[in-house]
């Protein structure tokens, strides 16, 4: 029997930050820095911090806005990082809270309850602790029997997690799986780095995977095939980790946060993603022209246009390859799932679409879906 995606949930934080708000605060920080370090800059010992602009951000990335789990602190030029409340061990953790909210929406979209699920995968770019797994905390909060675990695959965490879920249902070890992506990216954003301060937003997505035999959803998709690939690259990197304290380094230094060689990533990942999608479709005997929808990773609008153009020979329309990064920015692994959540109900039975992620690792993951 087939394996289906029967429900998807999207949880969006209440707070948002526009390009204008973000740039105003970054520029005030940069000017303050330059004033404070005036003498060293004049003496050529230190480089002045350059200014950012909303026009550059929108043109270079397509991003106009991002959501923030905690806005407080990000815009404070004497802080430049989110301010989260401290929670004791008995309280629900921040990332579990986001995950639970998205999971409840996915369960309801799939017409399912906790009793229908026996495996919980929390898959994202970072987890706020190593153990107990966020997935096990979510499992307990939702009252799910079975097991849960966390996995990290940066931007491809959602698609790689979905492949694990599809395999588990296919081989009969699980009857229903929740794959949840609580992307709390803001703690790892360097808001003092002009080149990357605008890129990321916070969000949580969740997907229910089950057998076609048990599916009770009006908007389910058969998973025709999945394909994951990785290829090592240092062009997107974060060096923060549990060994950081042993080296006595500054835990806040720029290399401990998200940093990238954006132009190289753009150049290397676009052809990789295009070839990946094409070969995945070909292996299933599907033509590019047969695709009704491309739920692509949301890192940069120009990347998505380039990838679809390579395959289609023209720009994809917004209906074919919807963009959500204008509103959500890059949300690591959740981007393609947000696009799927917002743009799947209009497809007709038999329509084919592809979810595809690409990013740090490098990692690329795709699922070919057919509307039931
Ligand atoms: N304001 C004004 N000017 C700017 C700004 C700014 N904010 N930033 C850069 N500039 C300037 C540059 O200094 C440069 O000036 P010059 O030409 O004089 O050197 C000029 O504008 C052009 O800069 P770039 O060449 O850097 O600009 P690009 O057009 O290449 O755009 C992008 C930069 C948007 C970063 C683009 O290269 C891009 O999107 N690349 C793809 C990156 C990508 O997809 N990365 C994926 C990262 S996400 C991921 O893998 C998941 C990681 C895990 C999650 C992490 C969560 C924190």
TrEMBL record:
Keyword Acyltransferase assigned: yes
A Gene Ontology molecular function term of the record: 3-oxoacyl-[acyl-carrier-protein] synthase activity
Record's keyword terms, sorted: Acyltransferase, Transferase
Pfam family, one: ACP_syn_III_C
GO biological process, one term: fatty acid biosynthetic process
Stretches assigned to the Beta-ketoacyl-[acyl-carrier-protein] synthase III N-terminal domain: 149-215
InterPro entries, per the entry: ACP_syn_III_C, ACP_syn_III_N, Thiolase-like
Sequence ranges assigned to domain Beta-ketoacyl-[acyl-carrier-protein] synthase III C-terminal in this UniProt record: 281-370
PANTHER family in UniProt: 3-OXOACYL-[ACYL-CARRIER-PROTEIN] SYNTHASE 3, BETA-KETOACYL-[ACYL-CARRIER-PROTEIN] SYNTHASE III
Name of the molecule in the record: Beta-ketoacyl-ACP synthase III
Organism: Zhongshania marina
């Amino acid at each position: 029997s087939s394996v289906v995606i029967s429900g998807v949930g999207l949880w969006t934080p209440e707070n948002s930050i526009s390009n204008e708000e973000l740039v105003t605060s970054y520029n005030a920080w940069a000017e303050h820095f330059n004033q404070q370090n005036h003498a060293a800059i004049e003496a050529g010992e230190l480089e002045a911090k350059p200014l950012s602009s909303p026009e550059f951000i929108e043109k270079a990335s397509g991003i106009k806005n991002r959501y923030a789990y905690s806005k407080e602190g990000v815009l404070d030029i004497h802080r430049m990082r989110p301010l989260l409340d401290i929670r004791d061990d008995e309280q629900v953790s921040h990332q579990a809270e986001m995950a639970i909210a998205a999971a409840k929406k996915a369960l309801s979209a799939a017409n399912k309850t906790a009793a229908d699920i026996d495996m919980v995968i929390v898959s994202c770019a970072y987890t706020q602790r190593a153990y107990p797994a966020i997935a096990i905390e979510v499992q307990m909060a939702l009252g799910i029997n079975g097991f849960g675990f966390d996995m990290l695959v940066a931007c491809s965490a959602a698609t790689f997690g979905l492949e694990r879920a599809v395999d588990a249902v296919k081989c009969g070890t699980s009857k229903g799986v929740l794959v949840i992506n609580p992307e709390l990216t803001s703690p790892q954003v360097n808001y003092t780095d002009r080149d990357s301060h605008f890129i990321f937003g916070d969000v949580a997505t969740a997907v229910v995977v089950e057998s076609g035999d048990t599916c009770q959803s009006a908007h389910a998709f058969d998973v025709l095939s999945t394909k994951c690939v990785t290829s090592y690259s240092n062009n997107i990197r974060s060096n923060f980790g549990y060994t950081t304290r042993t080296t006595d380094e500054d835990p806040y230094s720029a290399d401990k946060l998200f940093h990238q060689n954006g132009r190289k990533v753009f150049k290397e990942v676009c052809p990789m993603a295009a070839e990946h999608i094409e070969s995945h479709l070909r292996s299933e005997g599907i033509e590019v022209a047969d695709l009704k929808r491309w739920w692509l990773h949301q890192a940069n609008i120009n990347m998505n246009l380039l990838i679809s153009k390579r395959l289609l020979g023209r720009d994809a329309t917004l209906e074919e390859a919807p963009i959500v990064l204008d509103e959500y920015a890059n949300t690591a692994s959740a981007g393609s799932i947000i696009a799927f959540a917002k743009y799947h109900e209009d497809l007709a039975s038999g329509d084919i679409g592809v979810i595809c992620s690409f990013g740090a690792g490098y990692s690329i993951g795709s699922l070919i879906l057919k509307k039931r």
